[in-house]
Design brief:
With 566 residues, the chain is of the alpha/beta class. The chain is built from 20 helices and 13 strands.
Length: 566
């Protein structure tokens, strides 16, 4: 926000209309026809002043027009005040855009814990896992960029009855193999077979439950099997996370809380929060006002549940890290579960940080729910490989129009980027239907378009032998339509970034970057850069350099990479 203009507007309202406390909200219009800044404050004041909002707006516009930074001010619609600023005032404000591209120094304060990805033991990541994984990483990047200390936490599901199922399957159909020689695909096949066989033989489910209880009781043979399976799973994930530019600070999994659940259960019983349920199970009964159904925290056979471990997890995080906030980036289907979990922690009267379930919409594949149990999982790595192949084919088909010193690296950048961008460019709370053509598009609002625009800007700078930090001039007297539009787009970056970070909404940033690409390409096509007179050339190169910086910063926050040549 332009501080001097804000101060001027407040002073006008105080002296002219006698209102001492006023909150003036300024907007940056997407179209240059509506000015550089606009405010609906006149419509807000009309009711209090009992005056026509247009008359209030006209008075405000006339007085604002007298400010040294204002080129003109006009009334629009039913009472908007649109303000056009003088070119140099706009250029001076671009320093905030440049500052927004630099990560702030990490503050000394309580951390934010962001939990995401959450793979399951003995299963490869399916395409649906990309939702939590890249959205969670992007939210983590947003917080770090804003200067907040963050703990990125991958909470693997390596405990529970699901493991008992795998152990039973391996014992029956493992063909005498050593578990350490099994691939993640072979372990998944065994898990799928268990569910197929269990439909005809229900006793398998009971065997699985008993096997998991043995794991909890510490049987050495089953413990060794469990340890090997966890190792195979983590090893298989490492390369995939690197391809996605996903990194964690902590991967403490469910099993870590094995010896930390008993104190939680004891506390809940002592406080009469955990009460006996059917056959001796422990449950939590919530108030009628909450409208929450009862929650199970311990089975009748004294086996624990995901909720038991999540409570121990929460207690551990509070005691160990004293976070100010914990974000759980998890599927919308778990909404009730997290409402119950947070309510239980409140009933236990713990001193809690801010807790938020960052809702991620469900993914559907051709209108069918993807199910690991039935084996019709579309593996994330297969999708990335196919995307990279298509990107490579595109690079070859374009011939010399796409240039790169390393076509394979460019194909990886474009292919992986297209899938990730296809996720992040949609509102995380909406349902996503996976569509190959849509996810792997290289046209329009896509990662390749963003990557190409950045490469185009860098190409201009290389040809001019200009540095990426070209200084903006201090004597700009006029702007072309394309220049003004691009400047306006660049000025919107800090606000778009803040909105995306505060709302945990990556699509806000992708939408902004797409618009900036459009503005830069219009500027590139309309206004000569390298052939312009020297004063204009210097200014346009500075705009080009700043555009490249913003695109690269925004892309990397979204886990994407942009090439210098393309």
């Amino acid at each position: 926000m332009f501080e001097s203009l804000q101060a001027k507007a407040i002073a006008i309202i105080r002296t002219t209309f006698g209102i001492q406390n006023v909150n003036i909200a300024w907007e940056r219009p997407a179209q240059a026809d509506f000015g550089d800044l606009a405010t609906p404050v006149a419509m807000q004041l009309a009711k209090e002043l009992k005056q026509n909002p247009k008359m209030i707006a006209q008075t405000l516009a006339e007085k604002l027009a007298q400010d040294s930074s204002v080129e003109k001010a006009e009334v629009a619609g039913s009472g908007y005040v649109n303000v056009w600023l003088k070119p140099q005032a706009l250029i001076d404000e671009l320093k905030k855009t440049r500052e927004a591209c630099t990560a702030r120094v990490t503050r000394k304060e309580a951390p934010v814990i962001v939990e995401y990805s959450q793979p399951n033991v003995a299963k490869p990541l399916g395409i649906h896992h990309i939702l939590s994984t890249v959205i969670g990483q992007t939210i983590t990047n947003f917080y770090r960029h804003a200067g907040h200390p963050v703990i990125a936490w991958n909470y693997m599901g390596d405990w529970g009855t699901q493991f008992g199922k795998l152990a039973v399957a391996f014992e029956r159909w493992g063909k005498g193999k050593k578990v350490t020689s099994c691939s993640i695909e072979e372990l998944l096949a065994l898990y799928v077979r268990f569910h197929d066989e269990a439909e005809a033989d229900p006793t398998l489910e009971e065997d699985a439950r008993k096997t998991f209880v043995k794991l909890e009781q510490g049987y050495s043979e089953i413990r060794a099997f469990w340890s090997d399976v966890v190792g195979i799973t983590k090893s298989s994930l490492t390369h995939l996370y690197e391809r996605l530019h996903v990194h964690f600070d902590c991967d403490i999994s469910e099993s870590f809380y094995e010896d930390k659940m008993a104190p939680i259960l004891a506390e809940g019983k002592k406080k009469s929060i955990f009460v006996p349920g059917e056959k001796g199970a422990l449950i939590v009964q919530f108030s009628e006002e909450s409208k929450l159904p009862p929650a199970l925290v311990q089975k009748a056979d004294e086996g624990t549940l995901y909720a038991t471990r999540d409570l121990a997890n929460l207690r551990y995080r509070i005691d160990t890290h004293q976070p100010k906030e914990i974000l759980y980036v998890v599927d919308v289907a778990q909404m009730l579960y997290f409402q119950q979990l947070f309510a239980i922690a409140t009933l236990l009267q713990w001193e809690l940080p801010a807790l938020e379930h960052v809702v991620v919409g469900r993914m559907r594949f051709f209108d069918k729910k993807m199910s690991t149990r039935k084996g019709n999982i579309l593996r994330l790595e297969e999708v990335l490989d196919e995307a990279v192949k298509r990107a490579g084919d595109l690079i070859k088909s374009r011939g010399d129009s796409i240039q790169s010193d390393d076509p394979e690296a460019l194909a990886e950048m474009m292919g992986v980027g297209s899938v990730v961008y296809g996720i992040l460019s949609q509102n995380r709370m909406s349902e996503l239907v996976f569509d190959w053509d849509r996810m792997l598009s290289f046209e329009g609002n896509s990662a390749p378009y963003l990557q190409y625009t950045h490469a185009r800007a860098r190409s201009v700078l290389r040809k001019a032998d200009a540095k990426g930090d070209a200084s903006l001039p201090t004597n700009v007297a006029s702007l072309t339509t394309s220049e003004r539009s691009l400047v306006g787009g660049l000025l919107r970056f800090p606000g778009a970034l803040e909105e995306a970070q505060k709302g945990h909404l990556p699509h806000v940033l992708t939408h902004y970057l797409y618009q900036l690409c459009q503005l830069f390409n219009a500027f590139y096509n309309n206004d000569p850069i390298l052939q312009a007179p020297e004063s204009q050339k210097t200014f346009r190169l500075a705009l080009t350099a700043l555009t490249a910086t913003v695109l690269k910063c925004g892309a990397e926050l979204l886990t994407l990479r942009v090439p210098d040549r393309m």
